[in-house]
Amino acid sequence: MKLVTEKRPMTSRLFRFSAPIVSILVALFVAGFLLLAAGVNPAQAYLEMLQESLGSTYGLSETLVKTTPLIFASLGVSLAFRMQLWNIGAEGQIYMGACGATAVALFSGIESHFLMITAMFLAAFLFGGLWAGVAGVLRARWQVNEVIVTLLMNYIAILGVDYLIYGPWKDPKGFNFPLTAQFSEAARLTEFFDTRFHSGFFLALFCALIMYLFMERTVWGYEIKVIGNNPKAARYAGMRTGLAIFFVLFLSGAIAGIAGFSEVAGLQHRLQHGISPGYGYTAIIIAWLAKRSAIGVVIVSFLMGVLLVGGDSLQLSWQLPVAFVYAFQGLILFFLLASDFFVHNRLKLVRGEHHA
Amino acid sequence: MSNLLQIKNIRKTFPGVVALDDVSLSIAPGEIHTLLGENGAGKSTLMNVLTGLYRPDRGDILFDGSPVQLSSPRDSLALGIGMVHQHFMLVPAHTVFENILLALEGVPNLYSRRKYKQRVQQVLDDFALDLDLDAPVWKLSIGAQQWIELIKLLVRDCRLLILDEPTAVLTPQESARLFQVLTKLRDQGKSILFISHKMREVMEISDRVTVLKKGCSLITLARGEYDENRLASLMIGEDQIPMWIKPACKYEELALEIKNLSARNDRGLADLDNFTMKLYRGQILGVAGVAGNGQKALAEVLTGLKEASSGRIFAEGKDITNSTAKNSYIAGIAHIPEDRKSIGIAPDMTVGDNLIMKNFASHAFRRWIFQDRAAIRKNATAKIVQFSIKAGPDDNPVRYLSGGNIQKVIIARELSEKPSVLVALYPTRGLDIGSAEYVHKVVIDGANQGMSTILISEDLDELLKLSDDIVVMFRGRLVGCVNPQTTTREEIGLLMSGEVQI
User: Nearest-CA neighbor of A62 among A353, A312, A299?
Assistant: First the structure.
């Protein structure tokens, strides 16, 4: 007797949709043992997580605050993934976007709120785009692997921003902390309900809608899908693949860059050390789980927001170490990815004599 | 006589498709058994069942009289079922010997090179094959590479050899050599399952023929019970094989002229060497030659996918030597590529999306920056009817279609802009008679309307039947031009082998 895997000939709609839910439940179950081992009642802990992340205005607002940059970054990453371009550099592009927006906020002196926000947005778009565009040029011209370039440029971006906030851009009145001066009122996004929830979230939803239309309805989206599906066929059909590579990587970085804009203009109101706690890397996982669809990105980003906020609450109220939160997130991702495998494959016990 | 392999009532379905409905077949020891069938009849699926890649939903497979389960290629190989695929599974940078060694099981980590080499050499000597064991595979001709695949099965001592269209890449002389070896293998008691579309070969070599149609084994005929007409009509299910009437070319207007064209491949060797030819309006120019003698480069240079290192190309007087693929398409050259699955289609996209790949940006299919989905669907429906493509449901990805239907999608797309020149590379390779006839009809219809075709093919019957003139390529050079009315296959064969020039 042996265990073999084989491809499922077809998967029902119900199964495809229920698989991720079941896998999250399984993850919760397994994580429950970890909680028990730490002397915490799992049921209570989960209830608290839900309450903290969804059950109050404050909790929900915090969840959406975390969801916002995740949506931007994941949209950017998934756009590149659509063309089989592996942009691992969303983290760096977020930092560059934040850097561009900050430069405008601090030094442009624009007083109109609308003009200021627009200028900051464009600067973030351009900075993020050009940052990823470097990888685009290298890849299109000389076949340099974009994974390496985008990944390594993360370090340059993060350390570059550090240089600015420890050095020339440091707030003279900031007691020597590594952060810039606060932005003027004109350079801040609107906040709602007396919470940290800001209009960046709506911008993210709008962005997802645009992305959906772009990919599914426009001529460019079609071109990107053809190139992503079979670059040889695209070249044979006369498409200019080199240009498309640059364009898509630029756009991918630009959208990730908007996450940086939304973080400094909506949340921090200044550029500071550690502006993104790894949103750019989480975005890679989100893009993957969302199967690169714009709508999927919004849903998975929200789920990830719940996890982040709920995880924080576990740390605060049960004094669980941060390592537990990571383990918990890891388990959920692990089971989600595994469920994806089982949606497409099944295990089978093969009995009897085998001639192998 | 007891059968080596017997399959009974095999059924295999894929989502929405019954690939094999009810197939039964038996192969005796020491028999050459040919499998005939249209594309989509289920030949490939059956091969994949026998080599353990697919598992049937129903039915039994008996080997040596006892039922077996083939759940991986390893199981099949363990039983002694080996296959030479159409696409070779070789490591190009390794030597012939190293590639053959890969096929052997139980080679110890520290093996005696001499001992194994002797064993392989023994097989070569048995069949009087001349192959340099120390040559790297990439240096060898396609024909020689196929020998390696066959030898791999012989050193494993396979009892059932499956050959999927093995003569597609051979000259007539090489094919004859292969048949000698296959006959000898049969006489030694090996069983051979042979897949071919070339009637001449089927007639020559088969002991028995099984005709497959729409996933069912229709009939098995022994030698003497069949002739070409009977087999062809069984396959396509019509008694009449349509004959298309071709107008003779008038040689008046020049459509395309190539002057002293040279091109190099990735290794810097000459793919095209001082190649010169003329193509007239309405002419069907056949290009014969063993695969890998520059035909692909010729097509790629003509369609702008490859740059010529010297020489000029004129289309209706316009110099298009180094334009991009798109510009030359506008200049009126359509291209049916050699490797349809790898460069002809975007496999995961729908038939409709694939049909507009060349003119997706045209105003017929878009409104401002948005695609006109309704127009794309309408175009797809029209083309599916016009070219009788079996496309399945609307959102079916193209990769679910059979080879013949994929080829039809490509042809439909390429001809949709009414090109003045068509460059067709092996357009009927791997197609069944019905689909191949359809391609021939398209080419002849085109010629009737003034389209010129460069028909690159390895099927001499096809070239002789369709072409106004046949040129022969050898190592990137044009070594001869013959008239299909007066030439012989022997003459073309000799030209193809490079032994003579005209």
Answer: A312
